[in-house]
Write a structure and sequence with these properties.
4 helices, single chain, elongated, mainly alpha
Length: about 90
């Protein structure tokens, strides 16, 4: 058991954590985890920026119209997303 207030077991816990990290590094899993984390970060940031640009290209009123059409089952979400992307791409030309 670890009781930090009495400094009991803390060194053993640190050794176990360091041992596990060394195992992850040796097995390649640590690098794979870092790669996956970096990919999530890059794609997440790109997603936020693209969504902001698409909102600006389409306009809030038009976006609200797409959302309302999907909610009313007048338009499927895939077509609405395609229109949002098309507005972004058209704005970039």
């Amino acid at each position: 058991a670890v009781v930090a207030a009495r400094d009991e077991g803390v060194e053993a816990l640190l050794d176990a954590v360091e041992g596990h990290r060394a195992y992850l590094a040796a097995s390649g899993r640590l690098g794979a985890q870092a790669q996956a984390r970096a990919e999530r970060q890059v794609l997440g940031l790109a997603r936020e920026r693209l969504l902001g640009a698409a909102r600006a290209a389409l306009g809030e009123a038009a976006l609200a119209g797409l959302v309302a059409a999907v909610a009313a089952h007048e338009l499927d979400p895939h077509t609405a997303a395609d229109r949002l992307v098309a507005a972004l791409l058209q704005d970039r030309e």
